[in-house]
Amino acid sequence: MIGRLIELGGFGIEAAVALTRNGLLGPVHPAALARVVEAYRHFHVTPAAGLAVAAARWPDRTAVVDEDGTLTFAELDARAAALAAGLYRRLGVRPGRTVAVMWPNDRGFAEAVAAVSRLGADLLLLNTGLAGPRLRDVLRREGVHALIAAPGLPAVDFDGPRAGDLDSLVREGGSGAAPVPRRPGRLVLLTSGTTGVPKGAPRRLSMAATAEPFVSMLATVPVRGGEPILIAPPLFHGLGLLWYAVALVLGCPVVLMRRFDPEAVLDALDRNRAGALVAVPVMLRRLLARKPRRLPHLRVVVSGGSALPPDLAAAFMDAYGDVLHDLYGSTEAGWAALATPADLRAAPGTVGRPPRGTTVRIEGPGGHEQPAGQVGRVLVGGGLTFRADGLMSTGDLGHRDGRGLLFIDGRDDEMIVSGGENVFPQEVENLLSGLPGVADVAVLGVPDEEYGQRLAAYVVAEDGVTLSADELRRAVKEQLAGFKVPRDVAFVPSVPRNQTGKVDRARLTGS
């Protein structure tokens, strides 16, 4: 790590300051350092290595706070090692085999992912909301050998070996160790699957590929080593998993809750003196619906997983201070850009700039890069992307302003052509979400016999507020343009979303 910082030149100095502040470059006892080296040699860049390194450096520090109490890093690592041995013996987990983990946000998730990666098996993280034919298709397509599923989840149609009682496996494996794999397994994350069957995005990370973007993030987002972090999004999703990895690297206690409840989250932030909160935008909106609390220890809030409406960003910072950062990325592309509180204040709607080591290109017709202000396909390349070489499409359309800040105009497959005009539903959605009395909104393109396509707005009114379709259309026409006015305006009790806050189009439209 130190050698890599020297290679980074001026940024290396900035990063060294940030990592010293975070406690990563502090003195390490020789015995602990030897265990750190051994962990990376055995397990490479995996959850198993992250946990083993944290246990070597901070064995007595709290690792997890959940509804069952607390575990230290040493306790969590010991349970993961014993669980790995139990999985090896009872379920036949071996290198090259795929193990699916379907577990909510509690210690069981941390134990399972570390245990599977200790064995060199491929780790598939399943959405706990998957069920029925979709789940069967995923398990079959990904070639799953064994399933680790939490008790209480819907029954899973799976013929292979499975486990739900982790305690019994830990007891069984406590008498011996599993063999050390020769190479790390892959991590497979599922895409959101809001319009089809979720697909697996496999990756095998390396220290060289991840060093620059990871250090860049730590130099920009002022998280502190050893400071509790509440991670509200599902850990099976890229956003939650990324910040769990950050917590391991920094030795931060992770506060986990099996389900999101705004009052419980505010209580937990206060009770645990959490310095950081990770959430998706719909969670931030639900927190804002409660009376703001005084949270003097909360210094960092990270949003991601879906688009952050400008009005929500401003309202949240007005209530809790300029602590909000917005991460832009995708399951396939990884983390692609970061907006600081200053960016969100100065340029509402921006997703910021890419980290060092990551390239973002706005591609126009013919493959040429678009100038500032012109919309094009957003392509990303770098250490955290799914592809090892070249650039890959995020599926989004975006543009840069004159300062180099990135803006996302909408999904490539959601842009509609209505009467010959290009329309981005997200622009209209952002406007409507900021109007008084609008609690939530989704804007979609739907087929139209005359114009080809038209916009349809699905609006949730605040409690006790009566809105009219005409006043909403008038607001859009006054601030945008006539061809961007939704022809259909439907008032709905709620906008269905998946666990990462993205709109579930099929449930919303009934298609």
* Helical proportion, percent range: 25-40%
CATH superfamily of the largest domain: ANL, N-terminal domain
**The biggest beta sheet, please?**
8 strands, mixed
Counted up, domains total 3
CATH architecture verdict of the largest domain: 3-Layer(aba) Sandwich
Portion in strands: 15-25%
Shape by Cα distribution: globular
Numbering strands along the chain, what is their spatial order in the largest sheet? Answer: 2-1-10-9-11-12-13-14
- As residue ranges, the low-confidence spans are 1-9
Count of alpha/pi helices: 17
Number of strands: 24
Structural class: alpha/beta
CATH-defined fold name of the largest domain: Rossmann fold
CATH class of the largest domain: Alpha Beta
The average pLDDT score comes to: 88
The radius of gyration computed from the alpha-carbon positions, rounded to a whole number of angstroms, is 23 Å
Q: What does it look like?
A:
It is a single chain. Helix 5 crosses helix 6 (107-118) and helix 5 (73-91) crosses helix 8 (166-173). The protein is an alpha/beta fold. The strands form five sheets. It has an eight-stranded mixed sheet, with helices on both faces. The protein is 35% helix and 24% strand. The longest helix is centred in the first third of the chain and has 19 residues, at 73-91. It folds into three domains: 2-203, ANL, N-terminal domain (Rossmann fold, 3-Layer(aba) Sandwich), CATH 3.40.50.12780; 207-411, Rossmann fold; 416-509, 2-Layer Sandwich (GMP Synthetase, Chain A, domain 3).
